[in-house]
Amino acid sequence: MAKDFPLPRGATGFLSPDDAGPLPGTDLRTFRTALYEAARLTGGTVGEVEKQSRPRSFHIGSVLDRAGETVVLCHAHHPWIAFASERRNWYDEEFLAPPPWAHAFTDAGLTVLDRERLTTPLSAVDTSALTRDEWRRIRLYHLTTLGGVLFNAFD
Prior knowledge:
By secondary structure, the protein is of the alpha+beta class. The chain has 5 helices and 5 strands, in the order αββββαβααα. Strand 3 and strand 4 form a beta hairpin.
């Protein structure tokens, strides 16, 4: 998996004062639609959906079914999806394997990232597009994984 995941502009969700223009955005409606399809597939319901707000870099929602609650993270600037067992403001290695209904997100045009990818050490990721300010925050928050950089709450 070495260096096969180049981090594009906006991957950290952090906008430095030197950045030209706004960061790209992931459509919240697409995320919500995929959540409802996932809930339909499980015979469950959609839990609370929270739109990304600073400093968090992601939208968050959940699917509730007989197995319990699965938290679904949607990166606010790139169409990446991750799964977790609890709601938090940031993650580093606390990711779950995609559930069987994860295809509801890929069917909607989003990219599901598996636990192995998300827990990849940063040394194995192409971080050449990250700015000095982003690296400062990565070090400040002691982030060591791809998932930690993508699903964070830099302030």
